[in-house]
Write a structure and sequence with these properties.
single chain, mainly beta, 4 domains, 8-stranded mixed beta sheet, 4-stranded antiparallel beta sheet, globular, Prophage tail endopeptidase domain-containing protein
């Protein structure tokens, strides 16, 4: 892939050459940086990259606007940094209307995206008019969530994901960021990644987690509020013991003295979620063929132990270092 630079007005002025490049894009704000860094030796710095310069790889999500420039004379390097297009969306907040508890949205997916991003980034971000055929009715955003997190969660609730791509402008004209909704692809059967593919991964199928949580709330002794929560073989939590019994039952206490029933159940579920049996899977993938993007689902299997699972792509990291290019894919939740 090539990285193109522009002037401060978004008009292309050439390629970024002789640089080390590091772009990270991710769907989950908790474990994704969503920024970029371009490192040049001082003798390769020609001053064409300035504050406000756009850098982008055409028709991909890799791109952003330079907002920080640092220099280090001890190592003879200059670094240009900024947020990616997705990262910029994490710096806008969806706010409830005055007098309302929550911000809401109704309508077709792309029409909602278009109205929100074009209002926040006029002349730079554009939605699309294509109709997905999918609508939401009075969708409730989390209070004061970021524009990015709100749209990602809304789309995920109906099996869609954000697609972000920089589109080149005509000769002498600025390009723009195109944002749209596309279906999440479950490619776990098509892309089953194993150690035979030279993919490095670590699995941990932990089945010794808590499956019965006894939650203790307000009151004393026999008058104390007690709620029993159970996790079944699929990890689903309820107040009915349906699966693990006898020797298979693993119990623990959650002490929340003073808690009323609703709070005790809410916090008890959160506690059991963190302590129930779980599968963790960390994988480093440096090459995936085909059209796979953030949010799409891939599978993995260790044929020796039989451990398998499927998970969404959570992050992509594009680097060029000493002329060598690499794209690393990380699963959702990986550090």
């Amino acid at each position: 892939m090539d990285l193109i630079k522009t002037d401060q007005y978004g008009r292309q002025i050439g390629y970024v050459q002789g640089a080390n490049i590091d772009f990270e894009v991710g769907a989950d704000e908790a474990d994704s940086i969503n920024d970029f860094e371009i490192e040049l030796k001082r003798w390769n710095w020609d001053g064409s990259i300035r504050y406000g310069t756009r850098v982008f790889s055409p028709d991909t999500e890799y791109g952003g606007i330079v907002r920080e420039i640092s220099t280090d004379t001890s190592t003879n390097v200059i670094r240009a940094k900024g947020d990616t297009w997705r990262g910029m969306m994490t710096k806008k907040i969806i706010q409830p209307l005055s007098g309302q508890d929550y911000a809401t949205a109704s309508g077709e997916l792309n029409s909602i995206i278009k109205s929100k991003i074009e209002a926040e980034y006029p002349g730079l971000f554009y939605g699309v008019t294509a109709d997905t055929g999918v609508t939401v009715n009075n969708y409730q955003f989390d209070r004061y969530c970021t524009l990015h997190a709100g749209l990602v969660k809304m789309l995920k609730s109906v099996g869609y994901r954000l697609d972000i791509r920089y589109q080149e402008g005509d000769v002498g004209m600025a390009g723009y960021v195109k944002v749209s909704a596309v279906p999440i692809n479950d490619l776990s059967s098509e892309y089953e990644l194993t150690n035979d593919n030279n993919m490095n991964f670590i699995t941990d199928d932990n089945r010794r987690g808590i499956n019965h949580l006894i939650c203790l709330g307000k009151g004393d002794l026999k008058d104390r509020l007690v709620i029993h929560l159970y996790a079944d073989q699929n990890g689903t939590i309820s107040q009915t013991q349906q699966y693990f019994k006898g020797a298979e039952e693993i119990a623990a206490i959650y002490d929340s003295s003073g808690s009323e029933r609703d709070d005790l159940i809410k916090n008890g579920i959160k506690e059991l979620e963190s302590k129930k049996s779980s599968m963790s899977y960390n994988m480093t993938m440096t090459k995936l063929e085909g059209n796979i993007d953030l949010g799409d689902i891939v599978g993995g299997k260790d044929y020796l132990t039989g451990i398998s699972m499927k998970k969404p792509i959570g992050r992509k990291i594009w680097t060029i270092s000493s002329g060598k290019e690499k794209v690393v894919y990380k699963l959702e939740g990986e550090t």
